[in-house]
Amino acid sequence: MESERPSEADRFGRRADLKYSFYLLRRNPIVLAGCVISVFSVLLALLSPLLVNPSSWHAQDLNLRLCWNNPMYNWHIANVFDCAGSVYPLGTDMYGRSLSNMIILAIPIDLEIALEVVVSAVVIGVIFGSIAAYVGGVIDEIILRITDDFLAVPGILLAIVMIVVMGRSLPVLTFAVLITWWPFYVRLMRSQVLSEKEKPYVERLRAMGAGATRILFKHVVPNSIYPVLVQATLDIGAVILTVSALTFIGLTPSSLLPELGNLSNQGIQYIFTAPWLILFPGLTILVISLGFNLLGDGIRDIFDPRLRR
Amino acid sequence: MNTKKPVRPQNVLTVKNLKVTFHTYAGDVKALDGVELSVKKGELLGLVGESGCGKSVTTLAIVGLLPANAEIVSGEVLLDGTNLLEMKKDDLRLIRLKDVAIIFQDPMTYLNPILSIGSQITEIIATDPELFIQKLIETRLNQIEAMQASPSGLDNESQAERERLRYASNGNRLGRKDLKRLTRLYAISILNSVRLPEPEKVFKMFPFELSGGMRQRAMIAMALVRRPKLILADEMTTALDVTVQAQTLQLLQQLKNTVDTSVLLITHDLAVVAEVCDRVAVMYAGNVVEVADVEELFKNPLHPYTQGLLASVPRIDVAVKDQTSIKGSVPDLIYPPSGCRFHPRCPRAFEKCPVAKPTLFEVSPGHHVSCFLYGE
Questions:
Q1: Is residue A154 classed exposed, middle or buried when 0-12, 13-18 and 19+ CB atoms within 10 A define those classes?
Q2: DSSP state of B70
Q3: Three-class SS state of A292
Q4: Most exposed among A25, A29, A241, B114, judged by the fewest C-beta atoms under 10 Å?
């Protein structure tokens, strides 16, 4: 007798697919850790305006500068003024603002920049990279030479020049990082499509009368996009690091701005008297970058149908 | 067995004096040297020849997919009277979409690995839903009628669907959801017609989840979707094991009749030819050297190359060392032999062979050969 089979929807339906994704996720603890960290940081970013008053970073209270009421670490000796009455989980910075609040305000700013940069870079990369590879010839040459121009200048230098010329603001910061970032995606996508377009199934599609646009965007791009997606998740961490580096060297719209790099930059002056000021923003950068990197490592194993079944 | 077939003389495909040259680093490869070929309506023509004789180049030239370094020097490819070689690129693409289908040799790599079989088939239907829609609606309405006749009757949902389909069959637009369901049903019926077991499941499966034979069936299904006038099957059984080969070939033969199409079966396997083809064309070094009905060709091969080819089929009752083969090797097509390209290897060559090039002519009704031994 045949053992009872699950229904078709149970075996092939969308829900079964999702369930299987979760199973794959659970099986791989490192990816799971990355996933948890990334989801947690995104949630924190979304909830941030509810947790902390978004305009509280303007408020300075010099009576509360650099206080840390945590007897566990002997850091309270750094207190310039007595602030025994007020308790802040991570102490206060030199403007008297709660450091924990500033970090919570900083996470959405950094994540937003990172997402904007990476998503734009992926879109530009996928479109121009795949067209360059698939069409080839003069178009390929033109697109490649343009990326070369951008790659020829050291990225961070280019970003610094952009910010100095265009003024210090968050949109300019985002744009400056994007300018240094997109050529890599064009190159990556181009190389993927170059190898993918020679595969026999592309020949079959051509023989069946499929048009170039359909072949490229329905068949070749989905087949070659996984390395780009992996790179994108890895780059979320890298963009956060780059933005922090730029603000760390002072390219920030305001020294009060709660941005992880800027917070570290402000804190470094007090590294011996108030070490928490650089420690916690730095740790936040580390953990978020690590989380997205771990996620990027495993995302392909879960979503590429060739690897998942 | 083929005698009871109705005689329909008009040709679906006629290839006349097709010459193709590849420009390569080593020199110009004269791959096709005046190929003459015709496929009659409803017929299964086998095109045999050893590796490198130009079988695949012929198919690629027919559909206009030769690589960039190939040049069509002269010739005509007539599909139902229109010359494909003179067509604009985009019109030729539509011909490939509608009238000519190709089944490739390796089912492992000729399917998109990350799209399900179903979506690869519905994609073809979706390119031109207008062409299918009336037929789809009709089939579905019949299905619903059948459901109504059954004891359980119709539920509200099917009744509503019937109303919508009837509305659409009067030339009105069909909703997207209904269209999607119809294309899906049609795709499943196609999968069913190529004898894939559990077509609903195969519809959702990815190519790597199917066996070689199943994949080849899926490829045949894709070729059949548009009901093409001509199917070019390029070594379609080479990558399959023998039992599956037989099944696939029988399937192709049966479908050819139900779908009413013609097939050009390209192969180097004479057993396959003997099994399924109506007529055979033998190619050597870029020329068609002999064309005849299957039985005639196997009984009475005229061209020395065909004779040699048939004699070299491995036989189980002959020891390996005693088996015959054609002396010499395939000529270098950059510097092809003068005159008849087979003359350096031909056991019966005489003075005229290196000097002039023989043309295909009819020796007996339906039996063409290009060899000076039989005239001219």
A1: exposed
A2: E
A3: helix
A4: A29
* A26 in reach of chain B (CB within 8 A): no
What is the mean pLDDT of the segment spanning A64-88?
Answer: 60
Contact B372, B352 (CB under 8 A): yes
Contact A12 B206 (CB under 8 A): no
Give how far Cα A101 sits from Cα of A96, A264, B18, Å.
Answer: 11, 14, 79
A204, A215, A309: best to mutate for the B interface, most B CBs within 10 A = A204
A7: pLDDT confidence band, cut at 50, 70 and 90? Answer: low
What pTM value is reported for the model?
0.79
Tell me the two tokens of residue B106. 């390796």
What is the per-residue DSSP string for A246-286?
HHHTT--S-TT---HHHHHHHHHTTTTT-THHHHHHHHHHH
Distance CA A256, CA B287 (A): 83
CA atoms of B258 and B249, how far apart (whole Å): 14
Distance (Å, whole) CA B290 – CA B222: 32
| pLDDT, tens digit (0-9, with 9 covering 90-100), for B140-160 | 787 787 777 777 777 777 777
Residue A78 in this model has a pLDDT that exceeds 80: no
Paired with B77 in beta bridges are B15
Residue type for B153, please? G
Q: Is there a contact between B293 and B279 (Cβ–Cβ < 8 Å)?
A: yes
Phi, psi for residue B153 in degrees, rounded to 5: 75, -165
Place of tokens 């070019």: B232
Q: Which amino acid is at A231?
A: Q
- With an 8 Å Cβ cutoff, are B114 and A304 in contact? yes
Kindly report each contact of residues A76-85 with a partner whose C-beta sits within 8 Å and lies 24 or more positions away, as own/partner.
Answer: A78/A270, A78/A273, A78/A274
Question: Can you list the positions of beta strands (E) in B49-182?
Answer: 70-79, 82-83, 100-103
Strands (E), A48-182: none
B158-184, pLDDT tens digit by residue? 777 777 777 777 767 777 777 888 888
pLDDT score of B97: 85
Which residue, A163, A48, A159, A67, is CA-closest to A106? A48
Chain A residues with CB-CB distance to B109 below 8 A = 199-201
Beta-strand relationship, B44-48 and B279-284: parallel
Identity of the residue in B123, B201, B206 whose CB atom sits nearest the CB atom of A305: B206
Inter-chain touch A309–B209, beta carbons under 8 Å: yes
CB half-sphere exposure, A226, CA atoms < 13 A: 16
Token pair recorded at residue B355: 């000097």
Q: pLDDT (tens digit, 9 = 90+) per residue, A268-288?
A: 888 887 788 888 899 998 999
Pick among B84, B112, B210 to test the A interface (most A CBs inside 10 A): B112
CA dihedral B199, B204, B208, B209 (to 10 degrees): -60
Cβ–Cβ under 8 Å, residues B325 and B312:
yes
Going by C-alpha positions, the residue among A28, A29, A65 that lies closest to residue A266 is: A65
Tokens 């999607």, residue? B180
Residues found in chain B: 376
Which of A208, A215, A218, A224 should one mutate to test binding to chain B, selecting the residue with the greatest count of B CBs within 10 A?
A208
B114 close to A (CB below 8 A)? yes
Q: Are B18 and B75 in contact (CB under 8 A)?
A: yes
Tell me the pLDDT tens digit for each residue of B311-362: 888 778 877 777 777 878 888 888 888 888 888 888 888 888 888 888 888 8
- Residue A77's SS3 state is helix
Locate B160 and state its tokens.
Answer: 């509503």
